[in-house]
């Protein structure tokens, strides 16, 4: 075991082996090679820098002599640097501005549809971005129209609109909005405007403009659809760059959503406080001012109220007349019933009187017959006594007198015989 331990202690470690290998390398040769590589790299860099400086100097000389167009990046840089130096400013700052201006022109020339107008972007725009969309708001059509035409409220709920103002009774609307980090202004001229129906406009601006129309459609008494159609003509570097991915269309759609949110959250609470602009415009001329339109509307509402009041009075009067006729008919029917009842009662009394009269006549007839029968009986008795005592026939029972029935036929025979006897 002692021999094994001695073998382990005598074996060199990894670090010792690496160190011994490095000591065996030719370090002097390696160091010399590294020095030569460094000198070569420095010489090459200096050569490139010298060539770049010489090239720049030649270009500046060409610019100064008029042999090179100043519209390039370096030309713009040198030109702006010289202007800043003459004005007492910083040449470096001027060179930077000139270089950025040259790069901007290069990009405009490289992208199709963005060239041809110079650095100021003042050329006429030839390509437009079309935008068509609609929103539904839960208010009557006149409330939606009034809020739309109250342009001074737009910056309160639209994110990128900075100012919006319409001149008094003029078909002009001045707008200012933010495009990326730039601020753009334009003026819109209203060609046609009919309250609660449509607005059509054209606009002008240094960095592009927007033409379009908006129409209002009543879907229900408390539901309105707003249809917006836009033609955006970008002009300028930032506008054209944003137009590549249709940023303006997305922004317009978002602003419409902001309008709907404002109407449904604020305008709906106090719709009468939003007056808008109720005038009319035809062929870019104001044919009816806002005050005239409001006065006419108030007069129309007053006439409608008066007409409704008259119609209501007529309906009330007609209802009263109808009630009077019904009352008269009811009274007439009641009187007729009473007269009919009285007639029936009189008829009943008359029938009773007639019945009583008939009864009295029958009683009198019975009495007369009874008297005649008695007289006849007495005569028969007298004759019987005279003829030898024939027995008279028995008289009728008292029931006949009580019932009022006529005597039997035999009594009539006896009466006739007695009459013959008297004769």
The CATH class of the domain at 129-288 is identified as Alpha Beta
Structural class: alpha+beta
The CATH topology of the domain at 129-288 is what?
A: Alpha-D-Glucose-1,6-Bisphosphate, Chain A, domain 4
- Report the portion of residues in β strands: 15-25%
Q: Based on DSSP secondary structure assignment, what is the total number of beta strands?
A: 9
Radius of gyration over C-alpha positions, nearest whole angstrom: 64 Å
Name the CATH superfamily classification of the domain at 129-288.
START domain
The pLDDT mean sits at: 74
Write the layout of secondary structure elements.
Elements: H1 2-10, H2 14-24, H3 27-65, H4 73-86, H5 91-110, E1 129-137, H6 141-149, H7 154-157, E2 161-166, E3 172-179, E4 182-194, E5 198-204, E6 208-220, E7 223-234, H8 237-244, H9 247-265, E8 280-282, E9 285-288, H10 290-387, H11 398-403, H12 409-422
Helix pairs in contact: 4-5, 10-12
